[in-house]
Specification:
With about 80 residues, the chain is an alpha+beta fold. The chain is built from two helices and three strands, in the order βαβαβ. InterPro entries: Nitroreductase-like.
């Protein structure tokens, strides 16, 4: 399963944009911990490509919305022994 952790930065909020971004990171940590507690393995993809214009357009995101990370959730398959 692929989950998108979405974030919205509200520049008019009393909470600074930096703190809002930290909150998205905390939500990601909670998601990873909960997944592992349920017995799932996870892999996170994040970085500058999350701000890709084509990706954001295809996802139908507003100007302030962006995917903070993508989380792959599932069960790890061990490589077959040769």
């Amino acid at each position: 399963m692929l989950l998108a952790l979405m974030a919205t930065i509200d520049y008019l909020s009393d909470v600074s944009p930096k703190e809002q971004a930290k909150q998205a990171g905390a939500a990601l940590t909670d998601l990873l911990i909960a997944s592992h507690q349920l017995g799932y393995d996870t892999a996170v993809q994040a970085g500058p490509w999350c701000m890709d214009t084509t990706l954001r357009t295809e996802m139908g995101l507003a100007a302030r919305e962006f995917p903070a990370a993508f989380v792959h959730v599932g069960h790890r398959q061990e490589a077959a022994l040769r």
